Amino acid sequence: MNAPIRVAVTGAAGQIGYSLLFRIASGAMFGLNQPVILQLIEAPIEKALKALEGVAMELDDCAFPLLKGVVQTSDASVGFKDANWCLLVGAKPRGPGMERADLLKDNGKIFTEQGRIIDAVAATNARVAVVGNPANTNCMIAASQAKRLPAENFTAMVRLDQNRAQTQLAKKAGADLTDVKDIFIYGNHSPTMFPAFAHATIGGKPAPQVINDDAWLQGPFCETVGKRGAAIIAARGLSSAASAANALVDHVRSLVTPGAVHSIAVKSEGRYGFDPNVWAGMPVRTTTPGSYEVITGYAMDDFAKSKIAATNKELVEERSFVAGMIA
Ligand code: NAD
Ligand code: LMR
Q: How far from 151 is each of 40, 74, 191, CA to CA, in Å?
């Protein structure tokens, strides 16, 4: 058994938190040999902190063998102290009819402060994964505050989009989900994202060949994946939560598994035509636990280039919108 790692989670009493914490404590995120101490951070609001107490009681009542401690706090400098992983979930979610741009200003302030505090108090080489929307830009804002931690330690989640795309391809092809491989998400976690179907395979064959319907791939497929979050909000009246928590488990699990190939949003460095200094979804291969290299070899056709240009434009616009918050 390894020594326990410290996992800080913001928004711990929220919807995603309620689906997430029990999976972390059960070993789904870091494996069955890795004990964890959960450092749960909530907003300084009486109702949220009371709810957090209830969540902590339920964690106790699960008697998880891997759970070695639970911290409850509204003080980020306590919650992020010595954290090896900082999972930034807490933010205001989008309601019906709202676009992510509406959230930029409110949520940007949260990530400025959290980025600064993480840099000051988290463990050497802490990893940060951002879920709170607009996730790519919030991640960029948090990373901009860091002087000690390198930018590549800050990633944002596009795994929910990857999982959604995988399922849509499997359904269309009438194939088993596990036969769909190498479907990666490029760009923003927003309706402009690009699920790059041309490089995906189904049962070892190129997905476009198996599906044999380019109009569907370029139209309804991209649109269904891009607007899935809004479809869930329209149906549930609340944003996705269990599937988002599951995607974060997948995001981190893949990031701690050397050799795993998966989509995450990272600082672009100009790859695939993204502006340097935006955080864009792209395929990576995990090298050592918590570290990755971007897979750069995929050639893009004209359709893919136009989709990447559109999602890049949105990321650049979001960056200019929050320019005052970037250190
Ligand atoms: P929620 O409202 O149920 O929970 C959010 C929690 O965060 C609340 O308990 C709130 O009190 C807390 N919070 C707010 N400000 C905080 C702060 N400064 N520090 C600590 N906690 C704080 O929302 P949710 O459904 O759990 O969603 C959380 C976020 O995740 C939203 O921004 C949502 O849009 C986003 N989301 C992202 C994805 C993705 O794929 N990237 C998917 C689903 C949801
Ligand atoms: C999702 O994709 O389900 C979330 O990001 C929620 C949203 O606002 O779309």
A: 24, 26, 25
